[in-house]
Specification:
alpha+beta; 265 residues; two-stranded antiparallel sheet; Thiol Ester Dehydrase, Chain A; 12 strands
């Protein structure tokens, strides 16, 4: 299944307001001042495709492996969708000139895992408030009518806020190291983290979120290459109920390069 789609500036603004994403590359005012189109958040692309896929597989597939290798801008046509892979896997794609959800020969996919995933119970806790309007606005902008899927996708998109809060108030040695590279109050030409891969592991029988109750993120950063590559293991829960586990691979990219990658107006 595929869908020809165009994301608008207003949709991106709404998505970012709901998820508290303040990255200036998603801000029309900032981007237009640089003669650039707004960049669509990667998790917005993923959420839109996952909503399409849910109608076919529901929660029967419990693991997502998302690869991100390029950016998509607003007001440009893009083909979103999914197709069958081997062993009941589903490949997902977001194609303009290339597939944003592939790296080399490897493609993003959704599948049923056959092993147990356990994450350490150590790390930094970030408890984020969530209001009903955020969930409703988020669901509307990605056109998701299933509450369990909407809340799961919101929890993933909202994790970016938790990651940045963790970096902004570093506790561990690795968090302090990342903060040193990302702190734009010290150097406006600093780097920004760019998701290269994201693996998401759903629990059996996921539950919807309770509005007006905080979502808790337990985050553990690991260093692969200082100043360049980091991993973040994230457990997302609400009142002891697990929403998902995930593991991010974050690549450090200078802001000027991200801006250069954006489409011109």
């Amino acid at each position: 299944m595929k869908l020809e789609y165009v994301f608008t500036d207003d949709q991106v603004v709404t998505f970012c307001q709901a998820t508290c994403d303040v990255n200036p590359v998603h801000d029309p005012g900032y981007m237009y001042s640089h003669n650039k189109r707004v960049i669509v958040p990667g998790m917005m692309l993923f959420s839109k495709v996952a909503t399409m896929l849910f109608g076919a597989v529901g929660t029967s597939l419990d693991t997502y492996k998302i690869l991100i290798n390029s950016i998509v801008s607003t007001n440009e046509p893009i083909t979103l969708g999914y197709e069958d892979g081997p062993d009941n896997e589903k490949f997902i794609f977001a194609v303009n000139k290339q597939d944003s959800f592939s790296l080399g020969e490897e493609r993003s996919k959704v599948y049923l895992r056959n092993t147990t995933v356990e994450f350490p119970n150590l790390g930094s806790y970030q408890s984020l408030p969530v209001e009903r309007w955020q969930l409703e606005s988020f669901g509307k902008v990605i056109d998701c009518r299933n509450v369990i899927l909407r809340d799961f996708l919101f929890g993933i998109a909202y994790a970016s806020n938790a990651l940045f809060k963790c970096i902004g108030n570093p506790a561990s040695e690795v968090e302090q190291e990342i903060n040193q590279y990302l702190d734009k109050s010290k150097d406006s030409s600093q780097i920004s983290p760019f998701y290269q891969t994201l693996e998401i592991f759903l629990p059996p029988d996921p539950n919807p979120l309770k509005p007006n109750r905080p979502i808790d993120y337990l985050i553990q950063f690991e260093r692969e290459v200082a100043g360049r590559v980091y991993k973040a293991k994230v457990r997302c829960e609400q009142q002891g109920s697990i929403l998902y586990h995930s593991e991010y691979k974050l690549i450090a990219i200078p802001d000027k390069i991200i801006l250069r990658m954006a489409k011109n107006l």
